[in-house]
Amino acid sequence: MSISIIGLTKVFTKDKRRIMALEGFSLDVPEGQFVCLLGPSGCGKTTVLRIVAGLETKTSGRVLVNGRDTEVSRPKIGMVFQEFALFPWRTARKNVEFGLETRRVPESDRTLSSQKYLEMVGLRGFEESHPRELSGGMKQRVAIARALATDPELLLMDEPFGSLDAQTRNLMQRELLRIWSATGRTVLFVTHSVDEAVFLADRIVVMTARPGKVREVIDVNLPRPRDRTSQDFITVRGKVLAELDEEFEKARARELSLEQINENH
Amino acid sequence: MVNNLLTLLKKTLKGNWQKLALTFLSLAVFVSLWSLYAAWLHGDWPFEGGLIALTVPYPREVLAAFVDSFQNADVNGITMWGHIYASLKRVLAGFLLALAVALPAGLLMGRSSTSHWLGRPIVESFRPIPPLAWIPIFIVVFGLFWGPVGIVFLGIFFPILYNVMFGSRSVDPILIDAARTLGAKKSDLFLKVVLPFTLPYLMTGITVGLGIGWMCIVAAEMLGGVGGGVGYYIADRAGSQDYEYMYAGMVVIAILGTLTTGVAGLLENRIYKWMGMK
Fold first, then answer.
1. Which of A56, A80, A89, A114 to mutate to test the interface with B (most CBs of B within 10 A)?
2. What are the backbone angles phi and psi of residue A161, rounded to the nearest 5°?
3. Assessment of whether the complete model's pTM goes beyond 0.90
4. What is the DSSP string of B211-241?
5. Nearest chain B CA: its distance from A91 CA (Å)
6. Looking at chain A, which residue has its C-alpha nearest residue B197?
7. Do residues B7 and B76 share a domain?
8. How far apart are the C-alpha atoms of B114 and B122, rounded to whole Å?
9. Residue B180 belongs to domain with CATH number
10. Which end of chain B is more exposed for a tag (fewer CB within 10 A), N or C?
11. In this predicted model, what pLDDT tens digit does every residue of A169-211 receive, in sequence order?
């Protein structure tokens, strides 16, 4: 499913202060593409994802999925969170079946689906395990299976590997690409790791410091599987890093000037 | 059920014989000190010719009275079984009433800020009043059965209300977000996220509440004057200076209270396990 985000703006009100999180963020994602949103922390990349997911209201702008406004018809989405967000009292299987239960899918079909997706993420044999018995990487596998089980039109991932150790993280990135190529879903993936973005994405959207908008869209035309040590990979990485560094400096400069204001008061 | 409990008991004993030995040691020391104190008060060996006071009987006398109270009816024609039955009925009725009111009220006050600020002032004004302060008026207004039930209700109500309120309020917002992205409607959020999340808190409230409930029932039955129950039995035997029987009644309360909170604790554990959280 394709997504069009047009002029998305979000203003938060906090302690009577208005904070502009997003200002005219626009992006087109064709069907089946893997897009990474990259930006300095606080740039509103998670907010974009939460608005597309319907977890946050927007101040203005439009989000279209397959040409239909998400406010008119809610698209079926699957979301994966950095904190896993598994229901601790449900087994891996019952976690995966949650989205099917809410859609009143009959039990026999639910079992088939959970079986299929748990197998896809490599968790056969762990169906009856509870989250606390699983490692971080395995928890995130359950969360990915859960997001896929409802057959979503769109997969939204909010720094899903951010709390995993480096080894597990690399493994999960390869696993995600395998699952993505098997299912062909459109993916919107938020990260603050340049390396992760270059390894995964068809396109990288570099966002500006707050208020967030699109600074640069970089196509990554490297064949998969990508070699992190190849010259091409390093070149793309350097290009993205240069863009990001500038925004990072801007964000830092603004923080410093805010501190200055506070000191003068 | 009984078989399950027995195997559970066997398992517990197997790995814990040291703890068990210490438990027996502790009880043995207590009973010895008690015997010594009684001997001193009675002027028996080794304190011959000392004080003479009969308010503290020997442990063996209390044990004999304990056994006797179950076998033979007292002056009211009721055995200890009858008194236990009367107290149990009141505690159970008070508990069920408290659960029926405190669970929905706690969920409402935990999840809706309107209900919270509507309910909070009332709850906060009544909470500092000990349930026992209500005994005289409750007995007059509600009678000898429902009066003590009302006291037990008050004792159990607040622990359940507070635990459920706190539990349902502390549901991790990320779980709500996850459920919403998975198509959960309001009823799904409540039944499949808030309620299971609150269940362990509810169990804690029940365990704490039942402990308080037993304290309440003894006091309420004592002040009731008539109407049976273990509390009444204790007060009545004290009145007639049958102190070994009075203490036997207190032992019964200790056993009942321990059993109730023990069973509630086991259930709490079971629920934790069943929910995969332990």
1. A89
2. -105, 10
3. no
4. HHHHHHHHHHHHHH-SS-SHHHHHHHHHHTT
5. 8
6. A89
7. no
8. 14
9. 1.10.3720.10
10. N
11. 999 999 999 999 988 899 999 998 999 999 999 999 999 988 8
